[in-house]
């Protein structure tokens, strides 16, 4: 089968011919129709998890994918059961076994997959797992409620656009950072206010509009150094969630803030509820770049360079790709 692999850290992703993997107990083999691209995919190549777990090379890249079940290993007691021919989506990355979703066939634990609703196409489903689950978990993680004011810092990208919609859908007043070209889209998605991060420091602009402070922040872009200025916008006991491990828990607690570093957990129930929201039109996923599997390396370079205004999807099997 065709798969996009790296042979070591810091090497260029390339197309390889690998055997189709076989599912073990609790695992499902999926014929991938489309794979979703996330910043984490290039971060893995740069060794983001190098100190935490062993990696098996050649390593098939990619976490997110959607496709059709080919076969399933013996399910564990609590595993959902999948039958051949069912349409599924979820997270496939297992760096310790060299497995990922940028391939014609991929294996996921049954516990990381959900069925696709009838009207959801594969490309949209492939774009959903990591960004959607992150947005869901981060909004929940702030504890913000109706009428409270939430800044989404990094709102113009894949996670940010989903977070804006999920928060606004709960009656939270959302301030979204953006470039001028994407401001109208973010307002359409539910942002009550936008802040042009290309025009000046975000913290200064938000402080001017909210001199008494805001209730919560989802920070998708700041480093551990940059996040202090953003956190200074919070009212006492305000909540800040970092997607990039930028919160120093003790220091933020000492400042009277509720800080956390969260990692998306794409549980089947979360995936199913996100898919339902997409199907009902309550969550719009903007796919701003869709290319064939062969162009994975260039697609990763593109999101690394910035200017992501939505999700990137690799079409693995064009015949399945847009089917419902
Ligand atoms: N913890 C987790 O479980 C988890 C899960 C998903 C994602 N993440 C992380 O969350 C981050 C966002 O992910 P994503 O998929 O949404 O990435 P993305 O699609 O690349 O979006 C990032 C967005 O942030 C914008 N941006 C860059 N610098 C900014 C600044 N200073 N102020 C405001 N906006 C700025 C970018 O615009 P430009 O391109 O113009 O710079 C881009 O639109 C990534 O670092 C990713 O690794 C973490």
Report on this structure:
The protein has 324 residues and is an alpha/beta fold. The protein folds into two domains: 2-128 and 285-321, Quinone Oxidoreductase, Chain A, domain 1; 131-261, 3-Layer(aba) Sandwich (Rossmann fold), CATH 3.40.50. Helix content is 28%, strand content 27%. It has eleven helices and 16 strands. The protein has helices at residues 39-45, 122-127, 129-142, 158-169, 183-188, 202-209, 227-231, 249-254, 268-279, 296-305, 318-321; strands spanning 2-6, 14-17, 27-37, 59-60, 64-72, 87-91, 105-109, 113-115, 149-153, 173-178, 193-196, 214-219, 234-242, 258-261, 287-292, 311-315. The strands form three sheets. Strands 3, 5, 6, 7, 8, 15 and 16 form a seven-stranded mixed β-sheet that branches. The chain has a six-stranded parallel β-sheet with strand order 11-10-9-12-13-14, with helices on both faces. Helix 3 (129-142) crosses helix 4 (158-169). It starts with a strand and ends with a helix. Bound molecules: NADP nicotinamide-adenine-dinucleotide phosphate.
């Amino acid at each position: 089968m065709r798969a996009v692999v790296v042979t070591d850290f810091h090497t260029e992703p390339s197309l390889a011919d690998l055997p189709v993997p076989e599912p073990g107990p609790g695992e499902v083999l999926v014929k991938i129709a489309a794979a979703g691209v996330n910043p984490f995919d290039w971060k893995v190549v740069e060794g983001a998890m190098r100190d935490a777990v062993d990696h098996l090379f050649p390593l098939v890249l990619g976490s997110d994918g959607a496709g059709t079940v080919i076969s399933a290993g013996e399910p564990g007691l609590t595993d959902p059961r999948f039958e051949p021919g069912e349409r599924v989506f979820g997270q496939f990355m297992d760096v310790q076994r060299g497995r990922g979703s940028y391939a014609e066939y991929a294996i996921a634990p049954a516990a990381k997959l959900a069925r696709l609703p009838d009207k959801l196409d594969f490309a949209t489903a492939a774009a959903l797992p990591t960004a959607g689950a992150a947005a869901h978990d981060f909004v929940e993680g702030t504890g913000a409620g109706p009428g409270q004011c939430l800044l989404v810092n990094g709102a113009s990208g894949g996670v940010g656009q989903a977070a804006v919609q999920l928060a606004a859908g709960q009656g939270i007043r959302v301030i979204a950072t953006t470039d001028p070209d994407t401001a109208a889209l973010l307002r359409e998605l539910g942002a009550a206010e936008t802040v042009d991060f290309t025009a000046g420091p975000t913290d200064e602009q938000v402080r001017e509009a909210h001199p008494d402070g805001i209730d919560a922040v989802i920070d998708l872009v700041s480093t551990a150094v940059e996040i202090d200025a953003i956190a200074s916008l919070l009212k006492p006991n305000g909540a800040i969630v970092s997607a990039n491990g930028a919160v120093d828990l003790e220091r933020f607690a000492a400042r009277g803030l509720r800080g956390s570093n969260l990692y998306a957990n794409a549980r089947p129930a979360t995936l199913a509820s996100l898919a339902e929201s997409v199907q009902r039109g309550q969550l719009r996923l903007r796919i701003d770049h869709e290319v064939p599997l062969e162009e994975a390396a260039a697609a990763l370079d593109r999101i690394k360079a910035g200017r992501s205004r939505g999700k990137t999807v690799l079409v693995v099997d064009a015949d399945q790709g847009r089917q419902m």
